[in-house]
Structure formats: C-alpha cells, structure tokens
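Re-run requested by the PI after the first attempt was lost when the workstation crashed. Everything re-entered from the original request form. Ligand of interest: magnesium ion.
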Amino acid sequence: MIVTVQQHILQQQKKYPGARGNLSWLLSGITLATKMIESKIRRAGLLDVLGAAGETNVQGEAQQKLDVYANQALLHCLGMRDNVAMMVSEENEEPITLDRADGDGEYAIVFDPLDGSSNIDVNVNVGTIFSIFRRDPGQFKMDPNAHVLQPGLKQVAAGYVVYGPSTVLVYTTGNGAFGFTLDPAIGAYVLSHDNLKMPDYGTYYSANESRFDSFPANYREYIADLREGFEGREYSSRYIGSLVADFHRTILKGGVFLYPPTPSHPGGKLRLLYEANPLAYIAEQAGGMAIDGKNRILEIQPTDIHQRTPLVLGSKAEVTAFQAWKA
Ligand code: AHM
Ligand code: MG
C-alpha cells in the first residue's frame, strides 16, 4: 500500500503527544505549491516562462520568470495557511508577516523558491528548499526577524524538492529523513526512500573547480588529496550547479560537496537560512555532516536573514577528514 507524504507526516506527528496536526496542514501548502511549480517546469519550453524576468533580487542576481512564479506560488499557498505567521524568501528583501488571530500563526517559514534557477533554461535539475521554525506567539510584537534568526538546531522541519527526471521531496522533522516521489498519475508524493541513510563515505567530490586557484589553502590541499585518491578510494568530480541536485546525489551516493569562500564571496555564496540550514538538518538526520569549514552549520547563530556561509557537507568520512585538515 502506498504512503503519501501527508499520511507520513501525520504518523510522525502522532509520536509527539499534544501535536495537533498543524505541521501537516502547513506541509500541504508546500506540497501544493511545489506541484504548481513542477507543472510549470515540466512544460517550461512550451510556455512563455523561460528567461529573465527583468528584475534583480535582494542578492543582486537576475530573477528568472520561473523564480518569480515559484515565489508567488509558495507565498500564496502558505499565506492561506492560518498557522503560518511569517515567511522569508530568497526573493524578498524583507520578511512577510501575516496578521494572525491569537493562537494562530504558530510557524515561521523560510524558503528558496527555485534554487539553481540559472540551470532552468538548459533543462537541468532545479529545486525548492524550505525550513520551518516555531514562532513564539507570546512574542508577537518582537522584531519579526527574531523568529527565524535562530540556530538551525531549532528547525522543527526542513525539506527540499528536486525537479529532475522525477520530482522528489525529502523532509525531516528530526526523526530521520524520508523521500517521496511525485506520482503524476495520482498527483501525490508517495514514499519511495524510507529512512534515508547517507553512505559513511563516497567516491564523489563536488565543487566549482573553475575557482580552484582562489580557494583557501586547506580546501585546495584537501581537494588535491581527493584527486590523488583518499583512504584507498578513487574519486570522481560531479558538479551540477544546482545545490539541491548536488545535495540529492550526495545523500544517496555519499561523498562531499564544498562551496568555499571565494574572492567574490568571501563569506561563502550559499545562504545560511534557506540553503545551508535545511540541507544540514537533513544531512545530519541521514547520518551525514555539514560544517562551515570549521563549525557545525546547525549551531551558527544567524544575524541576518539573507546571510551567507561557506559550506562543506556530505558523508562522515569526507567531512571529518576536511575538518581535521592541516588548517
Ligand atoms: P540561486 O539560489 O540563485 O540559484 O544560487 C544558488 C546556486 C546553488 O544552487 C549552487 O550550488 C550555486 O548557486 C552554484 O554557484 P556557482 O555557479 O558559483 O558554482
Ligand atoms: Mg538558491
């Protein structure tokens, strides 16, 4: 018998006494939005949705039409959920706060609506990433940013959808990581990867090697060692340039993904709140690791909703070896 993501999260919630199924209501907003996004992506070449929208976002990057559509789909579907009081999107400079009645608006949600969107015009995988925090209703009037400026360890759930040859959703609520494949015949995400476990080591490393010469020395030496073979293993490189797709390979096959500080992005390129944190949470739940080069990603206290971080993420063997490097 099939298990849909909705059924699955309801079962997970039953493990927590007092849970009212609110998270499953919120998650249904996310799954609906991602189905809307996937149906646009699936037909992208046939609709007028490819190319740039003519605006730049808060990161100074050109917005693609599909970035705009994906953002609107999430804002709309989540805005309809009365238990969501705040949304932070890569595409919006400021958080969006929603006026909720007392007792509602339990959650704040952070997302990257369409990750890797520079790949969309060439029919390469893209994704959506999300991270959910509990908002303290007693603190309704406090600085809204404070609800999401919490270390990743405080996430109550996190997940991503990778739009590839099939559309796969992976999520965690801190009780393991689970993957669901969208069955187009019934329009539901169906459990396909029960209790995901990242291999303890792999044979792939993943970094944008065009910038190799400008990587800090410890990254260069580490990658050079992997190229020569490491702990008796021969490594290959794989780099898609869509974080979700590179992560999805890493969780299934093991190995390591690295986005070091570079001269153009001295603090790293990837965003802590809606890229590194949710993927770090899932990686750890699957037995992997995620660090900013030195420290655990999930322990970083954020100070800005759009802040960036270097990221080294993957199997235990590779990330531990990096951490212990001659740095
Ligand atoms: P985006 O959110 O604007 O799509 O940018 C993030 C993407 C990640 O998906 C990917 O890992 C990275 O940028 C690739 O960057 P680069 O082209 O510098 O290698
Ligand atoms: Mg992104």
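Saved to the shared folder this time. The domain at 5-193 is CATH 3.30.540.10 (Fructose-1,6-Bisphosphatase; Chain A, domain 1).
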